[in-house]
Amino acid sequence: MSKSNILIGVIAGVALGALLGVLFAPTKGSKTRKKISKKALETSEDLKLRLEDLLDIISETLDNKKTETPKDEMQ
Fold it and tell me: How far lies 56's CA from each of 6, 44, 59, 66, in Å?
């Protein structure tokens, strides 16, 4: 299993756990909806940042691979 699949699974599990925690909390419906909305926004922002980081890492890795000289050409 790749690291990205594990990361996605962990993030999804945390988001689901937070959502279930809010849903089962003994608060007023309007407050619960506000909490869900706020948490969804925070989670989406966090996912965007993580995706940007992942894309930066992939881009950097590809750039490094392009600039590396193959061993056959060095000889």
Answer: 19, 18, 5, 15
pTM above 0.70, yes or no: no
Assign 3-class secondary structure to 14-63: HHHHHHHHHHCCCCCHHHHHHHHHHHHHHHHHHHHHHHHHHHHHHHHHHH
Tens of pLDDT, residue by residue, the chain (75 residues): 577 778 788 888 888 888 787 777 777 778 878 887 888 888 888 888 888 888 889 888 888 888 876 665 555
- R_g of the chain computed on alpha carbons: 20
